[in-house]
Amino acid sequence: MAKSSSRFVCQQCGSVSARWAGKCDSCGAWNSIIEEVAPDSVPKGLSGKSGRRIDLVGLQGAAAPPPRLVTHISELDRVAGGGLVPGSAILVGGDPGIGKSTLLLQAVAALSQQVECVYISGEEAVDQVRLRARRLDLTTAPVQLASATNLRDIVASLDVAQPPMVVVIDSIQTMYLDALDSAPGTVAQVRACAAELIRVAKRRGFVLLLVGHVTKDGQIAGPRVLEHMVDAVLYFEGERGHPFRILRAVKNRFGATDEIGVFEMTDRGLEGVANPSALFLAERRGNVSGSCVFAGVEGSRPMLVEIQALVSPSSGANPRRAVIGWDTGRLAMVLAVLDTRCGLALGANDVYLNVAGGLRISEPAADLAVAAALLSSASDIPVAADRVVFGEIGLSGEIRAVGQAEARLKEAAKLGFASALVPALHRKGVSAKPAPEGPISAQRLGHVQDLTALFRQGNNLASGPKR
Predict the structure, then answer these.
(1) Which of 1, 6, 405, 428 has its CA 20 to 30 A from that of 324?
(2) What pLDDT tens digit does each residue of the chain (467 aa) get?
(3) DSSP state of 354
(4) Beta bridge partners of 144
């Protein structure tokens, strides 16, 4: 019999080393290496027994779209691709207290009116889950509750002839498999428990919803392979000081990726926001310098948000940069382009940038709106209250075209905006001259110098083009 030995495994990335170290050489995490017991024997490989040949088929063929369980929570159904697919595994991650358990409890309460649903909590007792259900007014929903962490008992309850159709595991980091000597939440435990649960869900055909903890960097805790094992990965994000929550799909085998759902946290739980643009702009004050409305796209949904900038003289040797909701490196690039291509000196000032409402923007189309907000603050000339801005800025100062321009303009027109600053589109069949597009008068810009020229004109920018 092979002698059992120990190995040292990083709990952040899963890399294995022969001895303990304070820092992982693979991912650079500190104090993340824990000793684990290695398997007693090494697998013998494929020697001694041959397998059967598998059937190979061509690419041509047709399959019916998968059936879906509709939760009637419109924002959740949107992110999931139209509903939950039986036999799928969905991983939901987010910061502590952001509302993951609340959202899933509301989802299973709605689905329990159609199919059998089970909610298994490894972090809370049954009475604690009932207390949350009482706050959300969900006590009459026929949801079956359990508080358990032993994976063997959970699998024995789910791997039956007539299993429930929806199962929530809250959370996967609290589950443990007694065949492993490592503690719950370690890489080996999370990987093994998730693999067993997904295997049962695929075989029995029920929807598996896994709640995942996140690290301080915002990534799902545990091995990276966990996100590869599941069919969909949803991140629940938001700012503690704002009531808005964003459910973002970063992986979905049964729907579009980068789709988002917008929720508002109320005393009755999470409520979907049908028109997030109006909600994000509800507290906006028009004709204020340093403010600009950006027409963005999140997934397949156009969304209008307010970008606020403040440029003030710096009192120190190193100007300060404070950014909330946008990429700091992108702001440095826009400032460098404005300084170099337009002859401005904004880089020597303190710059503060904020995306109002707690939303985080990642698309490059916000470059032109950020530049407009910076110039508006520096010149103390407000951007017209009924104007939206979008476009990408290149290093040479050119304003590049962005996708879904028509959808952005239609969303702006629906909310009463009358004008827009857009890139000069040089595409086949599209004129580069300023021309009205539907109910919005679009003024096309080809270079950032065209934007600075508008601020030098002053009144023209504030009033917008005539319709």
Answers:
(1) 405
(2) 445 567 888 887 778 888 888 898 888 888 888 888 765 544 555 555 667 788 888 888 877 788 899 999 999 999 999 999 999 999 999 988 899 999 999 999 999 999 999 999 999 999 999 999 999 999 999 999 999 999 999 999 999 999 999 999 998 999 999 999 888 988 899 999 999 999 999 999 999 999 998 887 777 877 788 999 999 999 998 877 778 888 999 999 998 887 889 998 888 899 998 888 887 887 787 778 999 999 999 878 899 999 999 999 988 888 999 999 999 999 999 999 999 999 998 888 999 999 988 888 989 999 999 999 999 999 999 999 999 999 999 999 999 999 889 999 999 999 889 999 999 865 444 444 434 445 788 999 999 999 999 998 764 454 443 33
(3) E
(4) 118
The C-alpha atoms of residue 409 and residue 302 are separated, in whole angstroms, by 9
Residue 427 CB-half CA count within 13 A: 9
Specify the fold of 278-462: Ribosomal Protein S5; domain 2 (3.30.230)
| Residue pair 9/33 in contact by the 8 Å Cβ criterion | yes
Integer Cα distance of 322 and 336 in angstroms? 16
> In the chain, where are the structural domains located?
6-37, 74-274, 278-462
CA 116 – CA 256 distance, rounded (Å) = 27
- 119 within 8 A of 171, measured Cβ to Cβ: no
- At 81, give phi and psi (nearest 5°): 100, 20
Q: Residue 427 burial by CB count (10 A; 0-12/13-18/19+): exposed, middle or buried?
A: exposed
CATH number of the domain located at residue range(s) 74-274 in this protein? 3.40.50.300
Q: Rounded CA gap, 108 and 76, in Å?
A: 12
Paired tokens of 191 = 């990987």
Distances (CA, A) of 289 to 282, 295, 381, 398, 441: 18, 18, 5, 24, 22
- Structure tokens of 38? 């290695």
List helix spans (H) across 36-150. Answer: 74-80, 100-111, 126-135
